[in-house]
Amino acid sequence: MDPKAVKSELVLILDYGSQYTHLITRRIRSLSVFSLCISGTSPLKSITDLNPRVVILSGGPHSVHTLDSPSFPAGFTEWAEANGVFVLGVCYGLQLIVQRLGGVVKVGEKQEYGRMEIEVERNSGIFGSKKIGDKQVVWMSHGDEVAKLPEGFEVVARSQQGSVAAIESPVRRIYGLQYHPEVTHSPEGMETLRYFLFDICQVSAGWSMENVLDEEIKVIKSTVGTEDHVICALSGGVDSTVAATLVHKAIGGRLHCIFVDNGLLRFKERERVMETFEKDLHLPVTCVDATEQFLSKLKGVVDPETKRKIIGKEFICIFDAFAHDLEQKLGKRPTYLVQGTLYPDVIESCPPPGSGRTHSHTIKSHHNVGGLPKDMKLKLIEPLKLLFKDEVRELGRILDVPQGFLKRHPFPGPGLAVRVLGDVTQGNALDILRQVDEIFIQSIKDAGLYDTIWQAFAVFLPVRSVGVQGDQRTHSHVVALRAVTSQDGMTADWYALNCANIVYYFEHKFLDDVSRKICNSVRGVNRIVQDITSKPPSTIEWE
User: Fold this and answer.
1) Is 245 annotated as a binding residue?
2) Checking phi first, is residue 173 left (phi over 0); if not, alpha (psi -120 to 50) or beta?
3) What does the entry list as the binding residues for ATP (predicted)?
């Protein structure tokens, strides 16, 4: 997808490492305005080439006082002013504006973290819809504070402690918020962002999934030559399936799909997804059983990053071999490989400014992003790489992918390799995990909870515990159950259903029934634990 071709003015986010940066992107897209996130230390040309209408400087964990603190490139504010581009600094972004434009930022006498009340001092600019004296609760996260404003700037709101909470220079089209409007802990934050974009910046809303579909088809057709053939790697998940359906719509019979059974799939996954591909989606799919190839390479490997890299490499080897077989059949070698890489995959696989690397912190490499060998003989097509999961589901709906399939919970590319902690080939860990996972998921479906959960799964832990089964002492395996709710996979809460302001967790009876079913049905398991950790601090997957 070419950012310049979407039917919406671009709001560009410069990322300085805040855990909330991706939320700004999501919130803006929810307003039907296209938004992208790039490194805050990107060269000026990378910014100007995207021709944004608005640039937002994100928050971050840094202090403008440190020598290596990340910053926007030289000439950025001059370019923005000369081209009528609006700039909004959030938290660290505000302090960066103040410091770079001649103001003073000092270490705060009283740090401000969490919920804080602010009061409007001027009903102009970013708070033009407010009255002087209006108050609102916002989410603060800063230790430094503004001591002196640059020339031409004014304070428009202060915190209850007297610290600067919002600034602006309407003439220069530069604004700043010391708090995070993008998080739900700032209840009026979305209203502020909406007013800023539509009333101050006069941004036009016109971005939709229909636009994305039309644009992606154009891009695929212009990228893939009229005689070129394409391989699509189907995992059985929503992402690769929507990507395949999209590419198939663009190039028809020149798409050749492959589904690889790597020995790391869920219970009866191979049979179930192949039936869906053939009967519902009518996609031509070749199924390759590569169980031995994958498991032999993973034998003895316990480091999760190494497992991901090995799996990514083996996938590419299989795709290369598949391409070679197609070459013999077609008389020419396929040129491209389609993958269902999503925007969160890209974001999570890049490091942050100020970390000695370059972007938002590397949490883990994704097999679609971090595990591809440099000598790969196929060129990549990633039609979904600027989209979030909920946007992909919406795109799939437009493409008539069955709703039941679109509602499937996400499944990691490396499969059960990242749900068996340690060596996946040790004993019968994979078989145990498949059985446990099937019981857990089926129980969730039977309880009518599946569609209220973003992702649910079981994890095989590399520990044993003492138990008593059949009046005998056992020393068996422990498995963990995890269920989370999320909007886009970038942040997540452990499962709780909020209905009419009442929060429902898994009922005691539900957990008790699941635990009994597992321990009575799966030989080798005598203890069940539940993961009640959110993201952050955890990731959704355990590895």
Assistant:
1) no
2) left
3) 235-241
pLDDT > 90 in the chain, percent: 56
Among 73, 22, 19, 61, residue whose Cα is nearest residue 536: 19
* pLDDT at site 55: 97
| Each residue's pLDDT tens digit, 173-217 | 999 999 999 887 888 989 999 999 999 999 988 888 898 898 899
Show the tokens assigned to 69: 């603190």
What's the pTM? 0.71
306 annotated binding-site participant? no
Higher pLDDT, 239 or 460: 460
48 assigned binding-site residue:
no
Specify which residues 175 forms β-bridges with.
88, 168
Tokens of residue 158, six digits:
């202060």
Question: Does the annotation mark 182 as catalytic?
Answer: yes
Cβ contacts of 516 within 8 Å, gap of 6 or more: none
**Is 499 among the residues known to form the active site?**
no
Q: Annotated catalytic residue: which of 22, 37, 91, 216? A: 91
Between CA 390 and CA 393, with CA 392 as vertex, the angle to 5 degrees is: 65
| pLDDT-above-70 percentage for the chain | 91
117 labelled catalytic = no
Residue with tokens 């020149």: 254
- HSE (side-chain half, CA atoms, 13 Å) at 72: 32
CB 498 within 8 A of CB 458: no
> CA separation (Å) from 343 to 7, 167, 348, 396?
19, 31, 9, 16
CA 196, 201, 205, 209 torsion: positive or negative?
A: negative
Q: How many CA atoms lie within 13 A of 74 on its CB side?
A: 0
Going along the chain from its start, the domains and CATH numbers come out as: 8-200 (3.40.50.880), 209-407 (3.40.50.620), 428-530 (3.30.300.10)
Nearby residues of 532 by Cβ (< 8 Å), 6 or more positions away: 494
Tell me the β-bridge partners of 468.
473
Whole-angstrom distance, CA of residue 103 vs CA of residue 80: 19
Amino acid at residue number 335: T
Alpha helices in 349-493 (DSSP H): 389-398, 403-406, 429-446
Q: Which residue has the higher pLDDT, 363 or 179?
A: 179
d(Cα 355, Cα 68) in Å, to the nearest integer?
9
